[in-house]
Automatic annotation (TrEMBL):
<feature type="domain" description="IFT122 second beta-propeller">
    <location>
        <begin position="298"/>
        <end position="552"/>
    </location>
</feature>
<dbReference type="GO" id="GO:0008589">
    <property type="term" value="P:regulation of smoothened signaling pathway"/>
</dbReference>
<dbReference type="InterPro" id="IPR015943">
    <property type="entry name" value="WD40/YVTN_repeat-like_dom_sf"/>
</dbReference>
<dbReference type="Pfam" id="PF23381">
    <property type="entry name" value="Beta-prop_IFT122_1st"/>
</dbReference>
<protein>
    <recommendedName>
        <fullName>Intraflagellar transport protein 122 homolog</fullName>
    </recommendedName>
</protein>
<feature type="domain" description="IFT122 zinc ribbon">
    <location>
        <begin position="1001"/>
        <end position="1039"/>
    </location>
</feature>
<feature type="domain" description="IFT122 first beta-propeller">
    <location>
        <begin position="2"/>
        <end position="189"/>
    </location>
</feature>
<keyword id="KW-0677">Repeat</keyword>
<keyword id="KW-0963">Cytoplasm</keyword>
<keyword id="KW-0969">Cilium</keyword>
<dbReference type="GO" id="GO:1905515">
    <property type="term" value="P:non-motile cilium assembly"/>
</dbReference>
<dbReference type="GO" id="GO:0007507">
    <property type="term" value="P:heart development"/>
</dbReference>
<dbReference type="InterPro" id="IPR001680">
    <property type="entry name" value="WD40_rpt"/>
</dbReference>
<dbReference type="InterPro" id="IPR056838">
    <property type="entry name" value="Zn_ribbon_IFT122"/>
</dbReference>
<dbReference type="InterPro" id="IPR056152">
    <property type="entry name" value="Beta-prop_IFT122_2nd"/>
</dbReference>
<dbReference type="GO" id="GO:0048593">
    <property type="term" value="P:camera-type eye morphogenesis"/>
</dbReference>
<dbReference type="GO" id="GO:0061512">
    <property type="term" value="P:protein localization to cilium"/>
</dbReference>
Amino acid sequence: MRAVLAWKETIREQCVYDLAFKPDGSQLIIAAGLRVLVYDATDGSIIQPLKGHKDIVYCVAYAKDGKRFASGSADKSIIIWTSKLEGILKYTHNDSIQCVAYNPVTHQLASCSSGDFGLWSPEQKSVNKHKVSSKITCCGWTNDGQYLALGMMNGVVSIRNKNGEEKVKIERPGGSSSPIWSIAWNPSKDEHNDILAVADWGQKLSFYQLSGKQIGKDRTLTYDPCCVGYFSKGEYIVMGGSDKQASLYTKDGVRLGTIGEQNSWVWTCRVKPDSNFVVLGCQDGTIACYQLIFSTVHGLYKDRYAYRDSMTDVIVQHLITEQKVRIKCRELVKKIAIYRNRLAIQLPEKILIYELYSDDSSDMHYRVKEKICRKFECNLLVVCSQHIILCQEKRLQCLSFNSVREKEWVMESLIRYIKVIGGPPGREGLLVGLKNGAILKIFVDNPFPITLLKLTTSVRCLDMSASRNKLAVVDEHNTLLVYDIRSKELLFQEPNANSVAWNTQCEDMLCFSGNGYLNIKASNFPVHQQKMQGFMVGYNGSKIFCLHVYSMSAVEVPQSAPMYQYLERKMFKEAYQIACLGVTDSDWRDLATEALEGLDFETAKKAFIRIRDLRYLELINSIEERKKRGENDNDLFLADVYAYQGKFHEAARLYKRTGHESRALSMYTDLRMFDYAKEFVGVTDPKSSRMLMTKQADWAKSSKEPRAAAEMYLSAGEHLKAIDIIGEHGWADMLIDIARKLDKAEREPLAKCALHFKRLKHHGYASETYSKMGDLKALVHLHVETRHWEEAFSLVEKHPQFKNDVFVPYAQWLAENDRFEEAQKAFHKAGLQNEAVKVLEQLTQNAVVENRFNDAGYYYWMLSMQCLDIAKESEEQRGEMLKKFERFQHLAELYHVYRSIQRYTDEPFSSHMPDTLFNICRFLLNNLTKDMPPGISKVNTLYALAKQSRQLGAYKLARYAYEKLQELHIPSRFQESTELGSLTIRSKPFHDKEDLIEGMMCYRCSTNNPLLNNHGSVCINCRQPFIYCASSYDVLPLVQFYLEEDISDEDALSLIDLEVPHTDQRAARWQDIDNGDLQSLRMDEGLDDEEEDPFTAKMSFEQGGSNFVPVKVSRSVLRAMSRRDVLIKRWPRPLKWEYFRSLLPEVSITMCPTCFKMFHSEDYELLVLQHNCCPYCRRPIDEPN
């Protein structure tokens, strides 16, 4: 740091007590004698003296906004002046004014006298004054304007708020023997706390926080301080006093140096806002303005740069990784030197040597290795692995880290430049440039310098190339000279250079800066220039280290220019070396391409690897392989390279020259350059022309011109490819034209056409094509796939061998569309009985699970009929199927019946009469003796029976039902009514109504049967099965009879039809109703049984036998029977017909011709009207049997 006097003025016989700068730095206000003087701050010329005070002016202060300033005097008054230098206001205190200060935010003025202080603001009429116990010597506001600090004679600092109330009191240990003479708040915005600097006449400088807590220890001074002031950013402090000089300190109170020595006490010193100018005011009236010049103290070695910051800190910056580390020395840093892992820092009284913690190139942790506690005077400082070198004018001294002077060299002239150029530890070499132009090399362990060169002019900058073969020098005329060290020959020179550096990684490259340009020179090519501010201080790979004012930056410089210079000379290896330092991807590509064309495959390969271009790497690989196999035709290799680069015509010419025309042809066709290919082939070769046509069509297809491609394929005779393209694009008209033109023997293209028609859903075209081919099977499949069932059926009629191919998919389609019953019939038609049964079983199961018992009954009936069909066709399955038939018939009836019970228990209303429900429940319970079919609930049946029995007066049966219910698990919804019913039924008589029991009479033996029968639906006496009406489940007056062995069904029919009339009357009484297929019996009047009926005789049986004896009839009995009294169930084979004789011909009975169920005729007619079909088998009434 140097202080240069800018200007100096003296006011005779007046003491300068205080001064203040206008905030913009243009004017200086000075308190001198009775006047306030206004000076121009730039040159020290007086602008105007201001009169207004009657006694000595002690203090002045300028408002932060620059609009007004204030002065305070021993005449006890304060005058406020405007920036135009007019007095606008005056107010007084009771004592002389000691100090004034403007609030930086609110512009409130604090004025302090010996006994009190006042606060005045422009908007207030009066001044608020506050008494104090001691004389106030100095005052200052915090940066935010919230607090005012007052320094007093009794050694106390009082911190007040804006209203004047004391918040903090700081008492200095010396008390009134060390009065506070000056205070200042640090103006820095970076500090977290408000920091107050306090200077007292106990010769101490101290720092405090706003809270009153001291920061650090007191700094001892050697004089009584009169003034303390901060720089605008708070980085330095200026202080003056009884030592007759102003000194510069760091913000922590470390003394950095003297600013200006004077002849008397320095009463006041201030820093010009935002500048390095300091103005002092002295006891003898001197006003001096000094400019402070802070020199750069720094050192550089390769990519590490160390520089001084805030005068007492050293920052080491890694120029590549941009890491920084700060080393705090807490003393003025005078010199810095850096080398490899060493860092030397010279302080006023010692030199510190630091080393890195580790050998890692990016490690930034330094620790102290040695301290040399001696004061040295030197111009330059250099550090090596084990020594420090001090340079003082002509003398070089080499000291070990223990402060032992090992060697000394004295030069013949002043040393202008010194640099360590490396070497083994303890034997490093130094490059030294002298003012007289001599350049020397000195080894640390050698007392004799070696002269390298002798120039005629002084040396400014030096550097030696990486291999120590070349030396670059910048002389005082800014000329760059490059010498060969061995031959001492000047290789070249360049003007306008202020610094030079060789590239540490490339022998032939150097850069130099000057006149705002950066110049890069490779080998002996012309210089490449680009704009750059500042000094170039290092060149490492592609990074150039540049120092601009105080900041060092690493500039990434692409090495493109020198690389292209090498490429122009076809020096591929050297160009590659340059590129390795750092070039762009496009530069790498250019290098690779040039090297490839120059047939330097090794360099090209390395360059293509850098940009990861696999295509070219494969090409180079293949060329290298061919070379190994003995090929050495460079023209052919070059032709391949040109083809890869897109220089196709050059490639074709080379191919032709080397006799490889076929390669040129395939290249053109691959590239779809068919016109060039045709030119190349000429019109001579028809085979090649046809191949070209096909290839052109291939290209048209791939380049999204399908119609053109198809037409080309057709003209080249490639029908299949043409059909594929046309089919893919769905041009059906074009496709049918081709199909019609093709011969029917060309089956493959025709089949392809048909396939495309199928895919495009052109059913008519497809069937036309298949018909042309005569492929009936494919035609059937087409109809089936497209669901054209009518056409399929008509084809099956002509060709029955395809029956299965049509009906099976038809049935599956019906099943998929929930038309199961039709599906079942279709399976049946296709002869797939098992499939038909499977569909039905599934339907039945679903119906049971979903409680659709009506449907379940119907499906079981259909299943039984299917089983009968299978039994009819298949001998080996007959026995099993007949058993199934019986079982399914039984289940069909049970589910059909249970439907009514389920509706009664689950639905709120019943459509059945109580006696019908009563009969149904009894029928079901009589037939549920063994196992329960799924879905049928015994609880529901018994519950319904109990309810109906009670209603109809069958109390005994109701009791039985309730008792049975108690044994079962009853659903909660029936629980209450069941319990209530079983209680209340006990109040009823313990018997059933007579007419109910009479309804269960056996028509064979006239026995009255119980209402519930363990043996099932048979008479307990004669074991004759009961025949029920399939709607009301009353017992019908029918008895089944069997034929004797020798009578066939046909004989029996003819015998019954030969009915012998007994009397004419009888004939008149019968009315035979033959309604189509229905057989009905009706009688008009009662018949007196005059004669013994031969059938009645046959009905007799042996009483008391436990086995059932069927009624067998002979021919004579059959002849005696009337056709109207007999009902025949004409079961298909292998079942036998069943014959029934009505014992009460007046009861009209109708039998369904399909399911052979018997009904009372009125019931049947009513049900048929309701449902339009048989209620049991659902046969439509108009369907022929």
